[in-house]
């Protein structure tokens, strides 16, 4: 499993990054998603709160864990 700061996917020989946007919503509560978890069965999106809540349970079995919750601190400092 990998933990990544920015989401990347390979298209041909190019790597393409996709950050989470305001359109990405938490599967638990519908708030803006800051955590993307890739599981064998598919993708899960979580707000920072629910991402922390499920981390201990899902992190060990996730294929990848993409956490952008640090953006909340950056937004707050601006």
Automatic annotation (TrEMBL):
<dbReference type="Pfam" id="PF24254">
    <property type="entry name" value="DUF7455"/>
</dbReference>
<dbReference type="InterPro" id="IPR055878">
    <property type="entry name" value="DUF7455"/>
</dbReference>
<protein>
    <recommendedName>
        <fullName>DUF7455 domain-containing protein</fullName>
    </recommendedName>
</protein>
<feature type="domain" description="DUF7455">
    <location>
        <begin position="20"/>
        <end position="72"/>
    </location>
</feature>
């Amino acid at each position: 499993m990998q933990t990544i700061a920015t989401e990347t996917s390979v298209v041909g020989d190019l790597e393409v990054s996709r950050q989470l946007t305001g359109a990405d919503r938490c599967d638990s509560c519908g708030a803006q998603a800051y955590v993307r978890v890739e599981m064998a069965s598919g993708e899960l999106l979580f707000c920072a709160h629910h991402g922390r809540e499920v981390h201990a349970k899902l992190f060990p079995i996730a294929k990848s864990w993409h956490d952008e919750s640090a953006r909340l601190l950056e937004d707050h400092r601006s």
